[in-house]
DNA sequence: GGAATTTAATGCGAAATGGTACAAAAAAGT
DNA sequence: ACTTTTTTGTACCATTTCGCATTAAATTCC
């Protein structure tokens, strides 16, 4: 068995806490951890360069089981992306909602982002949204819509952040929350890209610090 | 013949203006236009999803000729990337060197960038550097070095720009040229990503305008 | 005209790919 | 014990992939 028998590491919806007494042969895998492994692979190699054999090996499921559980490669990619987004959102939503000073909120968001982008046993994995946008997968309309959704959601979250800060007088009168939000997203994107290129964390933190300085003092 | 018999559309090094009288059977292709076609394909589909058959069809060269001219797929990818960078640099270098006000220089740079990222018959092609960073090709050390080089070169060009503007008094005393340069690069990256996701040019221009406003008024 | 040289064109081959058919296995229901 | 249901595991298939070996074509040099 490749999978560990531990609890799923992220938000798992536990519909039935106890054994539901399913009818047939029990599954030899846990869908949540299998999806996590698939996500890891897709993040490292992208859509085209990840083969079903790779996925099969990483998840410990043979191919027919993969199909039964997640559908074909495209569907598995989409489900991996959804899982990524759920995790990322879960990691950031509290900070976006918190009632802290602008600078502190930004610092915390970028710290989480760096954690996500730099993690990975075989090198930093970057941001799935950026990876997908840059991949051939973006020629698929459904996937492209997910990318746009992801980009817009981030813009909006930052937008609320800056509007809130402006109302509290943390920003000058002339500051434009929408523009600042786009810059904040742009900073997310640039560190995601640089992380993939193995730029060390220290350098990325410096870039983030400079960006925060500009955004917080923006006229 | 697939290739048009026109002159190479971009910087072609013309070592011998007249026929050099090569010995054997003459080539049926022009290396420059063939490389351009290969670049187009790689930009659209990425490294893994572009097959040698695709490249062969697009360039009008059969596979053995491709090998003879450019080496294997990886080498062809690298040469395509070099070509891309040469073209992009050529399109921007004059603006970066020009002696114009900061705002005007930025506006012109981003206009060129949008032209590059949004062009393409079958959808916007984005930025090769960003595409490559997000692809599995980045696990190749040589390719990764090229990516880092590309990122750094852009940072430096913007850096010179902002330092120059500060010396001329176009920026406040407290402005940090390095941070602004990173923000300018980040804006390049964010529009490259969004362009791939087919965000319309109008929206990208709005993002650029907002970013320029912030960067030019930066304290 | 013939040898030498360079390229084009065809096609082979071994490996990998996405996807599926089918039988064996493991559980619950009767 | 036997059927039903669900999953597993093996094997297979058609296609695509990269790379190369070999032959045919086109040109220059002698």
Characterize this entry briefly.
In chain A, 65% of the residues lie in helices and 0% in strands. By secondary structure, chain A is an all-alpha fold. Chain A has a domain of 136 residues: Tetracycline Repressor, domain 2, CATH 1.10.357.10.
User: Per CATH, what is the topology of the domain at 81-216 in chain A?
Assistant: Tetracycline Repressor, domain 2
Largest sheet of chain A: none
Shape of chain A: elongated
Largest interface: A-B, 47 and 47 residues
Mean pLDDT of chain A: 91
Q: What quaternary form is this?
A: homodimer
Helical residues, percent of chain A: 55-70%
Structural class of the helix and strand makeup of chain A?
mainly alpha
Radius of gyration of chain A: 20 Å
Briefly, what CATH class of the domain at 81-216 in chain A? Mainly Alpha
**Total DSSP helices of chain A:** 9
CATH architecture of the domain at 81-216 in chain A: Orthogonal Bundle
Low-confidence stretches of chain A: 4-9, 11-16
One letter per element, helices H and strands E, the order of chain A comes to: HHHHHHHHH
CATH H-level name of the domain at 81-216 in chain A... which superfamily? Tetracycline Repressor, domain 2
For the secondary structure, the number of strands of chain A is: 0
Distance between the termini of chain A: 58 Å
In percent terms, what proportion of residues of chain A is strand? under 5%
Description:
The structure is a homodimer of 219-residue chains. By secondary structure, chain A is an all-alpha fold. Chain A has a domain at 81-216: Tetracycline Repressor, domain 2 (Orthogonal Bundle), CATH 1.10.357.10. Helix content of chain A is 65%, strand content 0%. The first copy, chain A, has helices spanning 31-45, 52-59, 63-70, 73-97, 102-118, 128-134, 141-167, 177-196, 201-216. In chain A, helix 1 crosses helix 4 (73-97), helix 5 runs parallel beside helix 8 (177-196) and helix 8 (177-196) packs antiparallel against helix 9. Chain A starts with 30 loop residues before the first helix and ends with a helix. Mean pLDDT of chain A is 91; it is low at 4-9 and 11-16. At the A-B interface, helix 6, helix 7, helix 8 and helix 9 of A face helix 6, helix 7, helix 8 and helix 9 of B. The first copy, chain A, binds a DNA duplex (30 and 30 nucleotides) through residues 21-28, 51-53, 61-65, 67-68, 72-73.
């Amino acid at each position: 068995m490749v999978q560990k028998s531990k609890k799923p590491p992220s938000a798992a919806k536990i519909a039935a806490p106890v054994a539901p007494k399913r009818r047939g042969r029990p599954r030899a895998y846990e869908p949540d951890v299998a999806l996590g492994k698939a996500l890891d692979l897709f993040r490292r190699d992208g859509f085209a360069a990840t083969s079903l054999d790779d996925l099969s090996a990483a998840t410990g499921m043979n191919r027919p089981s993969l199909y039964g559980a997640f559908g074909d490669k495209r569907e598995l990619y989409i489900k991996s992306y959804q899982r990524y987004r759920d995790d990322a959102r879960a990691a950031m939503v509290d900070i976006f909602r918190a009632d802290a000073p602008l600078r502190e909120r930004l610092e915390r968001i970028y710290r989480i982002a760096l954690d996500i982008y730099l993690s990975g046993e075989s090198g930093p994995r970057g941001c799935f949204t950026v990876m997908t946008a840059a991949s051939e997968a973006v020629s698929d309309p459904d996937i492209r819509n997910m990318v746009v959704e992801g980009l817009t959601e981030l813009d909006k979250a930052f937008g609320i952040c800056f509007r809130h800060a402006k109302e509290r007088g943390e920003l000058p009168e002339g500051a434009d929350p929408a523009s600042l939000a786009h810059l904040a997203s742009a900073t997310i994107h640039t560190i995601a890209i640089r992380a993939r290129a193995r730029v060390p964390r220290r350098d990325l933190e410096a870039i983030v610090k400079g960006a925060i300085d500009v955004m917080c003092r923006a006229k």
